[in-house]
Design a protein that fits this description.
alpha/beta; Rossmann fold; 8-stranded mixed sheet; about 30% helix
Length: about 280
């Protein structure tokens, strides 16, 4: 009698590549990478059915460190690439990864419209309030009074509030996690991937090289005191009064994700015919 075949159980290690991460010692992105692979192991989706897309920055090295399909795009365009991939290949699980500079500055317009389109993908942003790869400039989420050699006295500019923008623009899932809580972060990422539509997860990921004071974040983060909501108005009130350190799912909506109409599909020959002179 033949043995009954037992499906292989995938572990976090099955989603890691052979490349060794080269972030600075103490960077929060190490544990974010671990949380991403743990989340994929929770979902048990085979690596060849997953695509990880990124732009430019420290956090955007993530695709090289996973054993999934990966695409390392140009600065700020990760969501454009990820959206196109998901629409063309809806069978794939698409995870887009980036940082606060890549996602909210040069990629800010893509961020707004990715939320609005509500394509079924997950956007993970590792936010450290600084441009770490280019040696410590202020980013869109940097506090206005943060003083350093490149911005003496601070920028004086109000910080970008990504969770508010995501909710107002139509994201269907909004959450915050902390790299110092890898298990909680993995659970949040798994929920985000499973939730239909555009899911946004902000991960507080300290840059101990250029923002050593962020080591104190571990003493400030705390679980949200109220459960997640599907009411945008209630979520807006929660996020607008948030101290920046609430962790967990803040909004889980029910808006149907975008699906490309079948009649909108065309062959290359049909497209060429449209442009024929």
């Amino acid at each position: 009698m033949n043995d009954i075949a037992v499906p292989q159980v995938l572990t976090a290690a099955d989603y890691k590549s052979d490349y060794k991460p080269i972030w600075c010692p103490g960077c929060g992105d190490y544990t974010v990478l671990g949380a991403v692979t743990k989340a994929l192991a929770i979902l048990q989706r085979p690596p060849h059915e997953i695509a990880v897309v990124s732009g430019i920055g420290c956090s955007s090295r993530i695709p090289a460190y996973t054993n999934c399909y990966g695409f390392h795009g140009v600065h700020g365009r990760a969501l454009a690439a990820g959206t196109g991939l998901k629409v063309a290949r809806p069978d794939l699980t698409v995870v887009v990864a980036g940082g606060d500079g890549d996602g909210y500055s040069i990629g800010g317009n893509h961020f707004l419209h990715a939320c609005r389109r509500n394509v079924d993908l997950t956007y993970i942003v590792m936010d450290n309030h600084v441009y770490g790869m280019t040696k410590g400039q202020a980013s869109p989420t940097t506090e206005p009074d943060w003083d350093n050699k490149l911005t003496p006295g601070g920028t004086g500019i109000r910080a970008f509030h990504p969770l508010v923008i995501a909710l107002a623009s139509g994201a269907n899932f909004v959450a915050r996690a902390f790299s110092g809580d890898p298990n909680g972060t993995a659970e949040t990422i798994a929920k985000a991937i499973e939730h239909p539509g555009f899911s946004f997860v902000e991960i507080l990921s300290p840059c101990v090289t250029f923002r050593p004071e962020q080591r104190e974040w571990k003493n400030h983060v705390h679980r949200a005191t109220v459960p997640e909501t599907d009411d945008p108005a209630r979520a807006a009130r929660r996020i607008m009064t948030d101290d920046g350190f609430n962790l967990g799912v803040l909004y889980a909506g029910s808006r149907p994700p975008y699906v490309r109409p079948r009649e909108a599909r065309a062959t290359v020959a049909q497209l060429e015919e449209e442009f024929a002179l």
